[in-house]
Design a protein that fits this description.
The protein is 68% helix and 0% strand. It is mainly alpha-helical.
Length: 397
């Protein structure tokens, strides 16, 4: 093993330890990349990598517009209508609350790629219903956590992991998602079944005098707001109790969250449903284009009943770009930082060495890949940083 590779391993280990101490992972990745590039005598390669990554429209566009669309859904209440439409049938069948709640969380995460935003949309509705049915707050929180974080976002073409893989290997998003379909669904089914079986003993009898069906809010005697045990990180301003006297669910509004995903899956060139469209876009529609068009439709729906349309349009436009800014701050910044770190590894020859080892041993690559990414995510606290870094460094041929 050469000295540059040994130095890279020590710097990488030190970076992991520094992140574990609470230093921002983006600062650590950029700093480690600069140090490694400096040792190699080419510190400018790190800055070049940063500049190149900032201009990647194929990465920044899909991720930022997908998050902007999610902010529009929240601002117009479309996410709430979808969740309520899906959860209402569960009120009649207590035994379906855990598997059904997990499934709804999975579907919500498909439409809203942010796991925190998905939990914020589903939690205020699902958690009180489960507590009213006799489940403990911990079980209700676990149902929310499993449903919103087990991998529904991997079926959205705007998900950062999908975008990173697509950028690295040049394969269409639909093909990538098709390859993930069976493993992802198996993982979801196993997690849901395990939680359902573990929680069977926690189901309590309904209190005497409680009417048939589950109530809209918390039963008498239970504390207001979301129970303890919910995952941290819900955005400020998230409602903590189920509203009463809310307007009826709009099917049109409820259909908005999954609309971009449905369009991107249906309007694939391989299906040939709209030949005229594929003459203009032979490789399929851009994710950004679909998100913008669907966002305009959501804004039109959000104008219904508004007397001051110009003010409302301005508010919704602000929300869309706030979502884009949030995506750049929280997601794109990690991708940029990972590019700097990878530039440092490249400068010291680590990527070439690892690619040679894994490229000649497929079985080893299958074993090492999930272990390395899981370990880095566990230690560093960022799954996106781990997966994006691995995709950009190891997947390109």
């Amino acid at each position: 093993m050469s000295y540059p590779i040994i130095a890279a391993l020590f710097i990488s280990l030190a970076a992991v330890l520094v992140v574990r101490r609470g230093v921002d992972v983006r600062f650590v990745l950029i700093g480690a990349g600069l140090i490694m590039a400096g040792i190699a005598g080419t510190p400018w390669t790190m800055f070049n990598a940063f500049q190149a990554a900032v201009g990647r429209g194929d990465i920044i566009g899909p991720i930022c517009t997908a998050m902007g669309y999610a902010y529009l859904l929240k601002a117009t209440g479309c996410d709430r209508d979808m969740v309520k439409l899906l959860t209402d049938p569960l009120r009649r069948f207590r035994w379906l609350l855990i598997p059904g709640g997990c499934a709804i969380g999975f579907l919500t995460n498909m439409a809203i790629t942010s796991q925190t935003a998905s939990a914020a949309a589903l939690g205020p509705i699902l958690v009180p219903v489960m507590i009213a049915a006799g489940y403990s707050p911990l079980t209700a929180a676990a149902t929310l956590l499993v449903g919103c974080s087990v991998g529904g976002n991997l079926f959205n073409p705007g998900e950062p992991d999908i975008v990173a893989i697509q950028s690295a290997v040049g394969i269409g998003a639909s093909d990538i998602m098709a390859g993930m379909l069976i493993p992802n669904l198996i993982a979801f089914a196993v997690a849901t079944l395990t939680l359902t079986l573990i929680s069977r003993s926690e189901l309590k009898r309904l209190p005497e005098g409680l009417p048939e069906g589950l109530p809209e809010g918390l039963p008498e005697g239970l504390p207001e707001g979301l129970p303890e045990g919910l995952p941290e990180g819900l955005p400020a301003g998230t409602p903590t109790e189920t509203p009463t006297g809310t307007p009826p669910v709009s099917i049109l509004r409820a259909a908005m969250p999954p609309l971009p995903v449905a369009l991107l899956l249906l309007l694939q060139p391989s299906l040939g449903l709209v030949p005229e469209l594929f003459e203009i876009y032979p490789d399929g529609l851009h994710v950004s284009m679909v998100m913008l068009c669907c966002g305009a439709l959501v804004m039109l729906i959000g104008l219904r009943g508004e007397r001051d349309a110009p003010r409302r349009i301005s508010e919704l436009t602000e929300q869309f770009f706030e979502g884009m800014g949030f995506a750049f701050s929280k997601v794109i910044s990690i991708i940029l930082s990972a590019a700097c770190f990878i530039a440092g590894l490249n400068a010291l020859g680590v990527i070439t060495a690892l690619s040679g080892i894994l490229g000649t041993n497929a079985a080893l690559a299958v074993i090492v890949s999930p272990l390395v990414t899981w370990g880095v995510a566990f230690i560093g606290g960022s799954g996106t940083a781990a997966s994006v870094s691995f995709s950009k460094s190891m997947l390109p041929p």
